[in-house]
Amino acid sequence: MWRIPPIGAPATVAVCAALALSLTACGGDGGGSPEGAGTAELEGRGPITFVTGKDRSGNLQKQVDAWNAEHPDEQVRVIELPDEPNDQRQQMMQNATTKSDAYSVLNLDVVWTAEFAANRWLAELPMAPLSGGSSPQAGKDEIDLSAMLPATIETGQYRGRLYAVPSTSDAGMLYYREDLLKKAGISEPPKTYQEMWDACDKVRKLPEGKDADCYFTEVNKTESMTISAVEAITSAGGSIIGPDGKPTLNTPQAKQGVEFLVNAKKDRMPKEAVTLDTEGGRRHFQSGKLIFQRQWPYQYALANADDGSSKVAGKFAVAPLPGPDGPGVANLGGHNLAISAFAKNKATSLDFIKYLTGEEAQRANLLATSQAPTVAALYDDPEMVKKFPYLPVLKKAIENAVPRPVAVKYGDVTAAIQGEMYDAVTGRKPAEKALSDLQSKLGPLTAQ
C-alpha cells in the first residue's frame, strides 16, 4: 500500500488521542468550524451521486431504486469505488482537492471525518440537540441523532459540529466453528488467547479439523493492519496514542500486544496470512479451513448463505474477541454519510442521507447484509435478535470499542502504523524495535 500524504491540512491542527471519545478536544486554527460550505448553504435540488465502496449484497441499489421511484427529479446515481479503504480515501481526496462537484454524498470510514472536515471538504450538517436546549440551527432540516448509539454519534463530529451522519457501525467479533468445538468437547468460546490456542489444538486432533488453520486477523499492509494493532495493543492494556495526544508505544503493554500478532502470524495463522485482505479472510473461513477468525459483522449473512457458497453455514457462532487475560477490546468501525462541500444539490443530498440512515432503511440493510446498524433499538428488537443472535454481543462490543487514532493527518499516522507493524509481523524487525521506530514517527505527527 502506498502512503497518502495529507492535502491542505492546517499545520497547527493537532492529532487527537486515540482513546478520546469526543472530537471537540481537537486543537486547531482558532476554533469554530472550518471555512467552506456550512449549513446555510445546503440548497439546491436535483440529481446527485452517492460515492461508496462495493455493494456485494445488492441491497444498496434496491434502496436507491426505491428513492429514485419516489423522486423522479432528484435521481441518485451510485458510484462504486474499489474494495480497499485506502483506495477509496485516495479517490475521494483527489475529487475534493480539485473541488469537483462529481461527488455528492460520500460514504466515509468513521476515522476519516476529522481529516475531511478539517480540510474543508465537507458541508456542515444541521443537528438537533440530543438532550434539551435549543438548536443553533433550528428548522425542519435538522438531523435527529437521539435514536443512535452514542459511540456512533461521536464519529460524525469535528470540534463539536456535525459533518457526517452514522450509517453503519462496526466492531470486531470472534467467529468460531461451533460444531468443531463441540465435537472436541468444548462448550464455550475462548475468553483468552491461551484458551483459543488450547481449543485449536483439540480441534486439530479431530479428523474434521486436522487440516484447518487455527486463527486469522488481518496482518497485511493495509488499513486492516492498523485495526489489528489497535485491538491487540488495547487488549493488552496499552494504547497507540495516549489521552494527552502523544504516542505511547514504548510500554510493556504495547510490546505484549504486538508480540501477540507476531507469534500468531508465525505459529497459528494461514501461511498466506500477509496476503489475505478482509474478503480473502472471509472466503478462507467460508471454505471451512479456519477455526477462529476476527471479522466484522457483515460476514455473518454471507457465511450463513444456503446457496452453496459457504461450507460453514449453520456451523459457526460469534463471541467477543479474546484477550491476554480475559475478553479483549474491539476496534470501533463503521461508515458515516457526508455531503461534499463542492457538491451541487445539497438539499437533495441531505434528504437522501436522512433516508438511508433512518430506522426503516437500517432495518432493511441489517436484514440484507448483517451490517451493524447505528439505531440502538434494532439491537434489542426480538425479530432482529432471532435472526441475528450476535446482536447483543455486537452492541456490547460497540459500546466498549476503541477508535483508531483520530487524526487530521490520518494518512500519515496510519501509514506509519501499517509499515512498522508489517515489519514486525514479517520478522523484518523485532517488535520492540518496530514500536520504538513507530514512536519516533508518530512524535512529529502528534506534536502540539
From TrEMBL:
Organism: Actinomadura hallensis
Record keywords: Signal, Transport
Organism superkingdom: Bacteria
InterPro entries attached to this UniProt entry: Bact_solute-bd_prot1, SBP
The name this protein goes by in its record: Carbohydrate ABC transporter substrate-binding protein (CUT1 family)
Family under the similarity heading: Belongs to the bacterial solute-binding protein 1 family.
Statement: the UniProt record of this protein carries the keyword Transport: yes
Signal peptide: 1-27
Pfam families from the UniProt entry: SBP_bac_1
CDD domains in the record: PBP2_TMBP (cd14750)
